Amino acid sequence: MHKLIMAISMMLSLAGSSAARAQGQTEALIYKNPSCSCCDAYADYLQQNGFKVTVRETHQLAPMSRKAGIARDFEGCHLAHIDGYVVSGHVPVSAIRRLLGERPAIKGITLPGMPLGSPGMGGAKQEPFTIYEIGDGAPKVFAKE
Prior knowledge:
By secondary structure, the protein is α/β, with parallel strands linked by helices. It has one domain: Glutaredoxin (3-Layer(aba) Sandwich). 35% of the residues lie in helices and 23% in strands. The chain is built from four helices and seven strands, in the order H-E-H-E-H-E-E-H-E-E-E. It has helices at 2-23, 37-48, 61-67, 93-102, and strands at residues 27-32, 52-57, 79-82, 85-88, 108-110, 130-134, 140-144. The chain has a seven-stranded mixed sheet, with helices on both faces. Strand 3 (79-82) and strand 4 form a beta hairpin.
């Protein structure tokens, strides 16, 4: 009987810690072009790294990016809203975690274009990724990875 109680207690404890982890997931809302498969791969990448991801398809990425403060030359492949910040393009999760940990007074970060080897993109990485911060002024380098 004692072993049964211990087993039930352990199962409830494990279930509780799994639920707490699920509740503690950071939500990511990704807007993407309906025909873009690399954006789907990026959404999978975020999910694999602990984010709770919702994907919405749109043909309005450019106007949405402008509204978010992202200049055309700094626009990424898709646009995400994560915990009060915008994240544009195939930004590595390490940069997102840094953003969320430091919580700088900026609008968000962007990895312009569709660099080979970036999360969700195929191919080999050619050079360090330059991730820019999106603020009120000209974009500045946030990280090089």
